[in-house]
Design a protein that fits this description.
mainly alpha, 152 residues, elongated, 4 helices
Amino acid sequence: QTLTNALEALITDEIAGKTRLEAELERQEKAIVTAMRDELDLATRGIELELGRELDRSRRRIAIFARLAAHWGVSANALTLGSIVERLGSAGTNLERLRNDLRTSIAAVLRKNRRVARLVHVHSGLVNETVSTLLGVAGVDQEPGALFEARG
């Protein structure tokens, strides 16, 4: 029961972390669209902070899974949240709900991350096109490190 409570607390923390990460990605997206450099920097730092917290949660998850694996006499690598829920039976009802909430949170973060990545890609293309137009050359992004004649 103690391990189950620890795992539920961890998953709750994971969900909160994903919610914070999604909020920072939203903040980053708005900063990119509105060209607010300081806000973009703050959002990026917020993302880095949350990713650092993710490492701590990962260590906690590994430790809990190892203890559960030892308790059940299986390899920790064989355990998933789904298999733990199955092993717990009716005692795993709350963990199953948390597992579903975590899946939803992860999916939201992945969608937001893809959206921000596309936005960055589009902005990068616009910058390259602008530089190409201003310098009168084609394909600035095709030859990284190329030198341009500035005397025109």
